[in-house]
Amino acid sequence: MIDGLLKDQRNMTLQDVCEHCDLSQEDVVAYIEEGLISVTGETVSNWRFSEIHLLHIRKARRLEHDLRLNPAGSVLVLELLQEIEHLKNQLKRLQRQNDPEADQ
Question: What SS3 state is found at 48?
Answer without folding.
Answer: coil
